[in-house]
Amino acid sequence: MGRRRGRDLDGWLILDKPLGPTSTDMVNRFRWALDARKAGHGGTLDPLASGVLPIAFGKATATIPYIMDATKRYRFTLSFGESRTTDDLEGEILARSEHRPSDEAIQAVLPRLSGDVMQVPPVYSALRVGGQRAYDLARAGRPPDLPARPARIDSITLVSRPDRDTAVFEVQSGKGVYMRALARDIALACGTVGHVSVLRRLKCGPFEISQAYVPALDAEGQLKLDKMAESGDKAGVLPVPLWPVATALDDIPALAVTREEGKRLVCGKRLETLSLLDRPVETLNDQPLWRVCLEGHVLGLCRVDHGQVKAVRMLENHLFFGD
């Protein structure tokens, strides 16, 4: 009999990712340390970025796309005076400028960088160009010419000016917004150049930095397994309880159903919206996704289309077995 490929773990571990390792590094380390069969993460953080990294185990991996699409909040420090190849501290200096904008000049440019904008991603990004990662092409001396892409930036707040060379911002944004590119664009809009020197993610969908687990690492950046498993069973004890799979969907509006309605959705049948809610069909149609709830339990996701409720992804159906 072959060795079982890991144990079944289902749920979310909200990690405060340290500087240094990549997001994939951290997923792989926790997957190995916990002997988990399946794991993934809900949004990449660069090695020089820290903060909220949601790690999905087992059934939670099915909800990763909804975390990727969710609203995120960041805090970063923009250092004026030098542009860099990577738009952060890791890259080589491309250009210098002696100009330092005033607080008023910075505040003046923020409105035009907010809302629905077109953003040119950093050359050192994970975007694929002709089947290759942009950062691989850049490192090979063939930086790609990346076109501007639509981006949604909900808000940019100038938090502080520690000194004339730096400014700290807090940003709330949607999917696919690069903070390194935003910092670059703020500096350019102010008539100078700059790069991100500190980047931290404070929120990712429903997950906040206050909920995040701070891992114990050794001098080489490896997880200290003895700190994770007080019993000595290195693959048996979680560092903290996992958040439920459905927590990833908390930002999606809830649609309460009866037991019979829930069963119909689980079985792939459609529902008439007017039998569910005392509200106009048009109101339901305006919301892309609804979280289907039965007695406080999340069954999955649905969409309203042409006056009918259709299942998009049902997470569980065991409630209806044995009826």
TrEMBL record:
<dbReference type="InterPro" id="IPR002501">
    <property type="entry name" value="PsdUridine_synth_N"/>
</dbReference>
<dbReference type="GO" id="GO:0031119">
    <property type="term" value="P:tRNA pseudouridine synthesis"/>
</dbReference>
<dbReference type="GO" id="GO:1990481">
    <property type="term" value="P:mRNA pseudouridine synthesis"/>
</dbReference>
<feature type="active site" description="Nucleophile">
    <location>
        <position position="46"/>
    </location>
</feature>
<comment type="function">
    <text>Responsible for synthesis of pseudouridine from uracil-55 in the psi GC loop of transfer RNAs.</text>
</comment>
<protein>
    <recommendedName>
        <fullName>tRNA pseudouridine synthase B</fullName>
        <ecNumber>5.4.99.25</ecNumber>
    </recommendedName>
</protein>
<keyword id="KW-0819">tRNA processing</keyword>
<feature type="domain" description="tRNA pseudouridylate synthase B C-terminal">
    <location>
        <begin position="180"/>
        <end position="211"/>
    </location>
</feature>
<dbReference type="InterPro" id="IPR032819">
    <property type="entry name" value="TruB_C"/>
</dbReference>
<comment type="similarity">
    <text>Belongs to the pseudouridine synthase TruB family. Type 1 subfamily.</text>
</comment>
<keyword id="KW-0413">Isomerase</keyword>
<dbReference type="Pfam" id="PF16198">
    <property type="entry name" value="TruB_C_2"/>
</dbReference>
<feature type="domain" description="Pseudouridine synthase II N-terminal">
    <location>
        <begin position="31"/>
        <end position="179"/>
    </location>
</feature>
<dbReference type="Pfam" id="PF01509">
    <property type="entry name" value="TruB_N"/>
</dbReference>
<dbReference type="InterPro" id="IPR014780">
    <property type="entry name" value="tRNA_psdUridine_synth_TruB"/>
</dbReference>
<dbReference type="GO" id="GO:0003723">
    <property type="term" value="F:RNA binding"/>
</dbReference>
<dbReference type="GO" id="GO:0160148">
    <property type="term" value="F:tRNA pseudouridine(55) synthase activity"/>
</dbReference>
<dbReference type="InterPro" id="IPR020103">
    <property type="entry name" value="PsdUridine_synth_cat_dom_sf"/>
</dbReference>
